[in-house]
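Exam revision sheet. Question 4 asks you to relate a sequence to its structure. Input first:
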Amino acid sequence: MMNTSVSENKQLNVPKNFIKVLILLVILLGICVLASLAFGSRTIGWTQLMDGLFHPDVQSHEANVVRQRISRTIFSLMCGAALGVSGALMQSVTRNPIADPSILGVNTGAALFVVCGISFLNISTASQYIWLALLGAIITAIFVFGIGSMGSGGATPLKLVLAGAATSAALSSLVIAIMIPRTNVMDQFRFWQVGSVGSGNWSSISTFIPFLIVGILIALFTAPALNALALGDEVATGLGVRTGMIRLIAAFAGILLCGAATALAGPIGFIGLLATHVVRLVIGPDLRFVIPMSALSGAIILTISDIFGRLIGSPGELEVGIVTAFIGAPILILLTMKAKMRTL
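Answer key, structure tokens:
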């Protein structure tokens, strides 16, 4: 897959501010965890928070609320990490600085297959959702890349985004067409479609863990070769990188992560875009560092969005997919205007 020239790329040249940024992100992550446990439709004080975490013998209402929020918080962190790494991989594979599962239509493809499963196969569990969502995400990604590769110049950033937007619009119409005559499907699907971590439980977490671990391990394994790929296909080939194989493996990891997260939490957009851009801005483009930092950044952004959604919508909640869309859409417009569709 790569010769000794690329293997030398594996020698870690740690960015000078990497340790500082890592410490900052870990601190922010800890604050987010505590805030997620404390804030919601009912605010929990420090004493009750500690009782819920460290004193299982205490059975007060507040302590029980804290314990119920633990699974939601862990699930939110896992989904954010998966979407952050997926965004980093998709941007690198497509060499598109604004690539994201939601922008390329992958989330919508997963949603179509889930609604088909609910409508025609009567599926209702997370383990059933996840395989259909992955299949839909893979087929959609292949279709979008195929459409974006047509014509002169191959798969340019502009053509990929346009192909993703057109595909997403077409698939969204199919989703609506399938749901309209089926009231029971609409009721079951509409809560999932918005994108929420509120349904996160220990069953969802145990289902998600294998996909998260495999996806991140593949991402880290392909990082050195993706760094070479960023120099251009000809240079990467000269360094011994099998460009087609690396793109395929990295794309599979990205689709695995976003497909699993979409199946369990619904189509949550812009996390991969926001997390990866923040990381690249601070520590540079080296994917050996961007990937793990994108995982931390994505976990923080999604958890903060979930907290805001609970506070804004109190005594109910505003689903996190709405919050991330509200934050991410203007940032996407700004990035598009600034980048002018240039490649990475």
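Marking note for examiners. Residues 61-94 form the longest helix (34 residues).
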